[in-house]
Fold each of these.
Amino acid sequence: MNFSSREREIITFLLNAEKDTTAKAIATELGVSIRTVHRDLKSIEGLLSHYNLELKKKSGVGLHISGNDVDRVAFQQVISNVNIVDFSPEERRTIILATLLEMNEPIKLFTLANELKVTEATISLDLDQLEQEVSLFNLTLIRKRGYGVEIVGNETDKRAALSNLIAKYVDPFEFVSLIKENIQKETTHQLNAISSRLLDFINPERLNIIEKVVEDARDELPYELADSAHIGLVVHLALAIERLQKGETIKFDQTFLQQIETTKEYAIAKKMIEKLEGKLQQSIPEDEIGYITMHLMGAKVRVDQDYLLEESSIDIAFQARSLIHYVSIGVGVDLTNNSSLLHDLVAHLKPAIYRLQQHMRIVNPLLKNIKNDYQDLFQLIQEGVQETFPDMEFPDDEIGYLVLHFASTLLHDRKSDLRALVICSTGIGTAKMLSTKLIQKVPEVKQVDNRSFFDLKHLDLDTYDLIVSTIPLNGFEGKYIQTSPMLTNDEIHRIRKMVNQKKLTFHSKTNNLPFTSANTDKRDMMTDLETLANYSQAVLDLLRSLHIQKMKDNQTLESILQEAASRLEQEERIINRNNIIKKLQEREKLSGLGIPGTTAALYHTRSKDIIKPTFSVYTLAYPLTIQGMDNESMTINTILLMLAPEKAQQEVLEVFSFLSSLLIQDENSLKLFSSGDQEKVKSYLTEEYRKFLLEKNLL
C-alpha cells in the first residue's frame, strides 16, 4: 500500500485529534487549500475501510476516524512502516541534516538522492537552504564535486544541532515513553518517519539506563526539576554517550569548570557520571560533568528565598533588578516589587550568563512565536539587556526566554478591559452572535460594538483594541481576524493571541475611550425620551412584522425566498424583491448562513429596497442542505429571515442584534422559533424586549 506524505500527515492529524476537527483546521495545519484536503480525504476513506475504520462526518461539527482501539492501533503501526511515495520538502531536508550530522565522513549527493528517491538537483537545492540553517550553530556545510558533502564544526555545536532537531520534531514525552515501550516489547504505536530517523541516533537500552540515573538525581536536587528539563537532560546524555562511542568528545573551559566545582549541581553531575560509567562500562571525560552541571543549573523551577543570598547570585540579582526597573518604565507597570519575577529571573540568568561566557549556544524553539506574539516587549527587553549587561551579547534565543518571564508576569497582573468591533455584512445578524460568543470566551473583552461593512469607513478605528469580522474585509488595510459567527477553538486561540499582544502593547489608546450614553451619569431628559421612542418603535415594528409560516411543499431554497419576498412586497415592507433575493444569495456566498450545532439558518441583509424592518420564520416540510457558518455542509429545517433598511437608526440595529443573540441563547429558544407557534414566539419576544429596555434604564 502506497500513499503520499500529505495523506499520511492528514491521517496522523485525525488519529491524534481528541475531538472532531474540520477540513479547514487540517488545511491550516498542513498549509494547503481546503479543496486539496477534501480530495485527499476521499482516497483516505478507501484506505480506512481495509482496517475496519471509517471517516465519520458530522454536519456543522467536523470529522473524525471512527473504529475500535485495536483497529486504530493496527492502522497506526501500518502507516508508520508503510512505503511512503514521497517526503515533504521539510521532511526531506530534516533527514538530510540528520544524516550529515551523524556521519563522520563525506557522503555523495547520489547516495542521498537515491535514498530519498529524488534527483541530485533537488538535493542540491535542499543543501542551499540547509547551509544557512547549520550556520546558526557555527557549523559549515562543505560540498565539493567528487568529494561529496559533509558538515564540519566542533562537537559541542554538532550536539546542539542534533538536540535542536529532536526538540523540533519529536515530542520529548512521547519519545521517552516510546523508548520504554520498545524496551519492554510492548509498543502500541510507532514514531513517524522523522522521529524514527532521529531515534536511530540513540541506543534504546542505554537510554533506559540514563533515564533511571537522571530519575535518581532528581531526589538529590535542592529544588524540583521540571519534566521538560528532566527529559532534556536525558536526551542530552543519550546523545553525549552515543557521540563518545564514535570517538567524538567535547571540551569544557577548565577555568570555568573550577569555578563551578563547588556547586551542589556539580557534585550531583559528577555522581551521575560515575553511575553511568559503571552501568555502561564506558569511560566518560570530566568535561561532560561541566555540561551536565550547566543543565542542572538552568533547570531550576522554584528557588528558595535564600537563593539570592548566595554570593555568586548577588551581582546577578542587582542586574536583574535593573532590568526589571528598565522594563517597568517601558511598559508603564511597576514590577519592581514583584519578588517572584526577581527570583525567576535570577534563576534563569545565572546559568544563562555562564553559557554566554563559555560561548555555549542555546536554542529556543519558541523564538519565532515569541517574536510574533510579543513584538513590542521583545524589542523593549532587547534594549534593556543592552543597557543592563553592556559587556555581554545576548542572542535572540536568550532574549526570547526573558520575554516569556516578563510576559507571564504582565499577563497575570495587567487587568485589561478591551473594546472590540465586530463586523458582518449587515450588522444585524451574525455580528451579534459573534459578539455574544466573544464576551463569553474572551473575558478581557468588556465592550463590543456591532457594525456593518458599510459603516467601517465612518468609524474611528483607533478607539478599538480588536476588530473581528465574519466576512473578508476587502480593501481594508487594518489588522483584523476573520472568524465564523460561532467561534471555533482555533479562532478563539487566534483572538487570545491578539488579546495578549494588546495587553502587552504599551501606551495604548484604550484608556482614553470616549464615554457612551450608557455610562454618562447626567443625561439630557429630552434625549432619553427620544431614545426610548426610537427603541420602542423598533421593537413594535419587529413584533408587528413577525410572521411564522410552515411550508407545505418540497421547495427549493430559492423558491422559499421568492415566496417570502413576494409576501413582504405585497405588505409594502420591501420593493424590488429580486434585488433583495440577490443580496441574500450574495451574502450566503461570502460565508455560510447555517447556524452550527442547530438545524436553522439565519438569512439577513440590509438594503435601500427594504422599507420597514421585518422578521420571519419558515419551518420546512423537507430538510435542505446548505453551507454552515463554519463552512461545513449541514442540514436545516428552519429559515430565519431578518431584513432591515440600509440607513436604519442605531436603535433598530440594536433591536435586531438582540434578536440574533436570542436565537443562539439556548436550545429551548431556538426550538420555540422553529415550533411554528406565532403567538408563543410573540409573547416570548415581548417579554425579552421588556428586559432589554429595562437593562438600558429606559423603563
Amino acid sequence: MKLKIAALLIVFCSFFSVQSQVLKPVKWITSVEKNSDTEYTLISTATIDKGWHLYSQNVPDNGPIPTLFSFTSNDKYELIDSVAEENGKTVDDPVFQMKIKFFEKKADFRQRIKVLNKELSIIKGEVEFMVCDDERCLAPTYVDLEFDLSNAKVVEKNEGSFGAIDFQKPEKEVVKDIKKEEKKTEEKGLWTIFIIAFLSGFAALLTPCVFPMIPMTVSFFTKQSKNKAVGIRNAIIYGICIIIIYVLLGTAVTAIFGADALNALATNVWFNLIFFLLLLVFAFSFLGAFEIMLPNKWANKVDQQADKGGMIGIFFMALALAIVSFSCTGPIVGTLLVEAASKGGIAPIIGMLGFSLAIALPFALFAAFPGWLNSLPKSGGWLNTVKVFLGFLELALAFKFLSQADLVLQLHILEREVFIAIWIAIFGTLALYLFGKIKLPHDSPLTHISVGRLSLGLLVLSFTVYMIPGLWGAPLNLISAFPPPLDYAESPYGVGNSKVGGGIIGSEHEELPEGAHLLAPHQILAFNDYDKGLAYAKEVGKPVMIDFTGWACVNCRKMEQNVWVEDQVLNILKNEVVLISLYVDDKRPLEEDDVVESQLKPGKKLKYIGQKWSEFQTIRYKTNTQPFYVLMSHDEQNLIEPVGYTPDADEYYEWLKLGIENFKN
C-alpha cells in the first residue's frame, strides 16, 4: 500500500513539474461600465507578468501577431467604433525592421456598445493574442471573454477615459523615457514623409500641367501689381494659399478616417488591394492611357471667383491651379496620401505640407527675382517624358501593395522571383523608353537624345541589370524593403537551382523529397509536416530536430540569423539532422479530416494548422514557448533534453553534437 502511495506521489509530482512549464503570463479579467441607459463600455483588462509584453491591436504586416478581439453576433446590441487601447510603448524592432507597439504590466482595452434590447445581460467574446519576453514567444492564444451587463458600474461622463501611458502609474522617469522614445520615433517617421513629399512636389513641378504655369502666373502678378513690392507680396500670398489648400486636403483625410484608423486601414489586406488598384489607375494615367480630370464646371466657377481680385481672388487663383493641374498632380498626391496613411497619425498633413511647399516655393522665388525666368528651360516634349517616368515609378510601387496582401494571405502568387521579374520588366521597359526605342501617347517626335535623358536611361538600365541576380538568390540590399523576403520564394537560390548541404538540387539533379522545402537563407532542407519529416529521417538514417517556431516569433528569427549561420551549427543542420519546422502561428485552416476537438479545451475545435502544432507541443513536451528545439530518435524518444532560446552559438553547437552522438550510440 505504501509503495502504491509513493508511486502515486512520484507521478503527481512529475506531472506537476512538467505542467509548470506551460506558461500563462497574461491573465484576462472583464468588467463593464454603464455610460447611459443604452450605452455601455466592455473592458478587457490584461495583467501581464514581469518581463513579458503583449502586442498592440495595430501591428504592421509581417510583424508579430496583434491582439484581436471578436464579439458574438447578436441583434440585441451593436458595436460602437472599434476597440480602443492605451498608448503603450512603441519601439523600432531590429528583427522585424518596423515600429511595433506593445504593453507591459497591464493594459486595458475598451469596446463601446449600444444595447438594443434591455433584456440583454451577457455578452460573449474572444481575444487572440501573442506575448513574448527577451528569450521566447508563446503561440497565439485564444481566451473566451464574458461581460455581465447586470454588474455594470455606473460612471460619470468624466470617468472611464484613458489616462496616461499605463494605468498602474509607473515612476515618473519611466513615463518620461517612454514618451521621449515614442516622440523621437514619430518625429523620425514624419521627417521622412516630409522629405519624400517635398521631392515629389518638385517632380510634380516638372509635369506639363504645372511647369508652364510658373512664368504665366509670375508674369500676371508682376504686371497686375502697382509696383514690384506688391507683386512679390501677392505671389507670396499665392504660394501660401497653395500650401493651405493641400494641407486642408491632408487634414480632411486625417479627420475623416481618424489618425489611428489610417494605420489600421493601411495594414489591412483589402486596403492593400485597393491601394494596388488605385496606383495602377494613376500609373496608366501618367503613361497616357487616359487623363484624370476634375469637372470643368469646378474650374470655371473658381475662375469666376478669381476675377474678383484681392485676397479672396488670389486664393481662388491657387485653387484654380490645383484643379487645372489635377491630371498631373492628382496621381502624385494620391500616392503620397496612400504612403502617409501607412504611417498613421498626422502623416497625411505633413505629407501635403511638404508637397505644397515644393509647389509654392518657385512661384514666390520667381516673383521676387523675375530675371530667373530667363534661365528656365522651355516647355516641350521633355515635360511629358517626366510624366511618363513618374508613371513607371507608380506602376512599380503598386506591386509593393499587392505583395503585402499576398504575404499576409500566404497565397504565394507574388513570390520573390515573380516580384523581381515584374520590376525587371517595368524598369527595363522604362530604360528602352528613355533610349527612344518605345513611344507612348502624347510623346513629341524625338530627333535626338539629350545628355540628361541618356544619363537617366543608363542609370535605369544599370538598376535593371542590378536586379537580375535577385532571381538567383542575391539579397538586393538597395531595394530590400520592397520585394518579399528570401524565404517567400519558389526557390531561395534561383529558379530551378537550389543548394542542400554540399550538393545541388535542380532540374538536372536530385529532386526535393515529398513535403520538403529549402529554408532560406541557410540552404537547409526542412519539412513543415511532422509525419513526412519523420518518414524521411527514417529513410536517410538521420535524427530528427523539431523546431517549434512561428512566423511572428522574434527570438526564433534571432536564432536563425545569429546562431544558425555559424559554420559548425549550419553544417549539422544541413547534413546531420532532418529539420521539421512546426509553425504554431500558421493561420491556414486545417483540412476537414484534420479538424478535431482540442484536448486542452474540451468543447472547442482546432481550426488552424498553428493550433494543431501548438497543442502538440503543449501535450507532448509540456511547454508552450518558442523557439523550442527537440532532438529525437526514429522511435520519437528525446536524444537529449530539449532547449529553448540559446543565443550562445557554441553552447547550441554542443547541444546538437551531444544529441547526435547519443543517436549514433
Amino acid sequence: MAGRIRDEDIALVRERTSIAEIISDTVTLKSAGGGNLKGLCPFHDEKSPSFNVSPARNVWYCFGCGAGGDAIKFLMDAEHLSFVEAVERLAARAGLQLRYVEDDRPAPRPNRAQQGQKQRLVAAHAAAVEFYTAQLATAGARPAREFLAERGFDRAAAERYGCGFAPDGWDLLTKHLRQRGFSHDELVTAGLSRPARSGSLIDRFRRRLLWPIRDLTGDVIGFGARKLFADDDGPKYLNTPETPIYKKSHLLYGIDQAKREIAKQGRVVVVEGYTDVMACHLAGVPTAVATCGTAFGTDHISVLRRLLLDTDAVAGEIIFTFDGDAAGQKAALRAFDDDQRFVGRTFIAVSPDNMDPCELRLAKGDLAVRDLVARREPLVDFALRHVISRYDLDTVDGRVEAMRRAAPLVAKLKDREKRPEYVRKLAGDLGMEIEPVQRAVLAAASGRPADGPAARPARTEPSVDSPQSMVEREALKLALQEPVLAGPMFDAVEAGDYRHPVHVAVRAAVAAAGGVASAAGGAVWIEAVRDACEDLAAQALVGELAVEPLRIDGEPDPRYVSITMARLQWGSVTARIRELKSRIQRINPVNNKDEYFAAFGELLSLEQHARALREQAAGGL
C-alpha cells in the first residue's frame, strides 16, 4: 500500500488550485468587496449569505456555522471525500502528478486499493458511459435512435447529453466493466449491476435508452433509462437506485450544463423530464433542469438556492413547467407549498395546449418554448385560480367555500406587502366584498383552524360599518320614521338590494306589514313592522332604527330619500357587477361563445344602470 502524498505535492496542489473555481461548482459567489466573495453556505440552510471566500488567501469561512478551510477541506466536506481523495481530485483537475513518500519518482494514479470508494464508483460510471454511448450506434439500438429523432433530437444532441443504449444482453456491461478492473462489489454498490437468481451478476439496464445523470461537478453518478419495447414489463422510466454517490433527492438532471446560466441569469426553469431539459436547452432556455425519478423537494431547493444566490438582496426566479392535466396541476400545488423556502419569486408556465416543452418544440419550434417561459405567471395566481375553479361561484355557498379554501394560500405569501393586493384580487375573482375575504385571510394567517368558528366570519354581506351597510340602515330609518316621505321610492327597492342579512329581514318585515306607501307612521306602524319580524335580531334592530337620528342636518326631504335609495341600489348593482365580471372571467369565450356574449351584454346593461344611479345620487356617493 502506497504511503502518504508528499508534502511539497500537497503544497503545489493548493498553489495551483483556484478556490473560487472549486467552490463555484457548487455555490454561486458574488463580490463582497475587498476582493472577497460571498454566497449561501452549502453546509447549513440560510436566507442571507454568510459564506465568505478569500481568493487571495485561498481560504473560505462561514460566519453562520463556523465551518472553514482551504479547497481541500471544502471538497472533503462538500463531497464527503477523504483527505487523500480530495487532493487527488484537485491534482487531476490541475494536471499535476502526485508522488508518494515511498517513491520519489512520478507515479501513476493509485490502484484500486489506494483509491477511495467514491472515485471508484465515479470511474465505473465513466466507463459505463463510454460503453453505452458506443452501443447507441449499433443496429440493435435503432429504436433508441428513432425515439430521439421523433422528438427532434439529432446525433449532435444525443452526443451533447451523452445518450446511450443498454443492449439486449444480460451481462454485457458487467463483463465489460469486470475486464476494466472493477470488482463485483463495486458494480453492485454503483447500481450498474445486480445479482441474478442464479447468483451471477447481470446488468441493471437492458434494452433501454439511457441518459447519464451528472452531479454539479459534471461527474456521471447514475442513469435514467427509458423503456422502448412493448414486451418490456418494467416501468416506463427506471433510474439508478440509491447509492453512496446517487441521492435522487439532491439531484437535478442537466444541472451541470445549466449551473452557470442559472447563476448568470438569476433564473431556473424546472421541467419534468430528460427530453424536456434537452428541448429547453436547445431552444434557447439554458437554465432548465429536471428531477430524477422523484418529486421536487427540500433538498432540490437547497441546491438551487445556492446557485441562484437566493437571498433578500438578490431574489431570483424559479419557474415551474407542468403539464396542464390533473397530475401536473397537483404537482404545481405541491410546488406552491415549497414556495416559502425560496426568497425569490416563483412562477408557473403552462402551455395553452397542455404540451410539455419537448412536445411544444417539436410542434411549434424553438420560439414557442422561449415564449412559454416568457409568459409565466406567479405561482400564487395559478394556485388561487385552481382552487376557486372547483366551486360554483354563482352561488353564495360556492363563493364562501371557495374563499375559505383560497384564503390560506394568500395568508402563506412570504411577502406580506403583497397580501392586501391579493385580498383585493381574490375578492374580485369571487365577486365578494373585500371585508369578509380580509377576515378569512387574517384568520388563516393567525393559525386558527379553517373549520373553526373563528375562521368562519366569511359571510358575503358587508360589515356593519361599511358604506353599503350604512346606507341600508339609513333607508330603513326613513321607512320607519318617515313613511309618508319615503313612500313609493322605498317600496320600489326590493329586499334583494340589501346585503346585510338582518337588514334583509327588516326589509321583508316592512313588506309584510303592508309596505311603506300604505303606512300612516307613528308607534302603530313601528309596532306592526316589529311584529312582522321573524327573529329577535330583526326585532331589536327595528327598535334601534325607530329612534336613531337620520344622517342629515335639518329635516329630510324627497331629494334626500331619492339620494339614499339611489345609493342603496348603486351598492347592490356594483356588487352584482363584480360577481358578473368574476363569472365572465371563468367563461371560455371560444368554447362557450353564446354564454359569454349573454353575460357580457348583461354586464353592459348593469354598468349603464349604475351610471344612472350615480347621477341620481347627485353627488351623494
